[in-house]
Amino acid sequence: MKQILVFLLFAVMMVWFMFTPVYKHILILRQAALQKEVDYLLEVGASGTFGYVDDAMTELSRNRLAEIGFNRSQLDYTVTTTSGSAGNRADLPVQRGVGIRLTITYPYGNLFGIDRLLGISVPDDTERMGAAGMKMSEYVP
Predict the structure, then answer these.
(1) Sign of the CA dihedral with 27 first, then 108, 44, and 56 last
(2) What average pLDDT is seen over the chain?
(3) For 77, what's the count of Cα atoms within 13 Å in the CB-facing half-sphere?
(4) In this predicted model, what pLDDT tens digit does every residue of 104-113 receive, in sequence order?
(5) Do residues 44 and 133 make contact, with C-beta atoms less than 8 angstroms apart?
């Protein structure tokens, strides 16, 4: 009986050690993908051609992130500026020297289910991972 118990405990520990790095890498890859998308949108949006990050740009971004496994409806985009003006309106581009700040968030969801079973404290299901960045606008009318 003791041998069976030891075997079961060993098997459970072995499975946990094997799969722990996998979901941690998923977290890292999601975070990296969000940050890459923020950097790209800011590079394009703050350029001298645009001066904004509008809904059409964020819709294309949602499509790109959905291709790599994100749920489109759970992505949340927030565009602000250092001057307080709207940074997401094509009819009112942000002038040169004003910072455009973009934040993309996505829920953790059930990513830490294994940790929760083991009693390790995990983020709430309502908490969100995110990526943010700011770039000065280069738009000159």
Answers:
(1) positive
(2) 86
(3) 22
(4) 999 988 777 7
(5) no
Q: Given phi > 0 = left and psi -120 to 50 = alpha, else beta, which region is 97?
A: left
> pLDDT band at 22, cuts 50/70/90?
low
* Residue-by-residue DSSP string for 35-89: HHHHHHHHHHHTSSS-----HHHHHHHHHHHHHTT--GGG-EEEEEETTSS-SS-
pLDDT, tens only, 66-101: 999 899 999 999 999 998 888 888 888 888 988 999
* Rounded Cα gap, residues 5 and 90, in angstroms: 66
Alpha-carbon distance of 50 to 56, in angstroms, equals 12
pTM: 0.79
CA dist., res. 89 & res. 139, Å (int): 13
C-alpha to C-alpha distance for 29 and 140, rounded to whole angstroms = 36
User: Exposure of 100 by Cβ count < 10 A (0-12 exposed, 13-18 middle, 19+ buried)?
Assistant: buried
Among 34, 25, 133, which Cα is nearest to 75's?
34
Give me the phi and psi of 126, to 5 degrees please. -85, -15
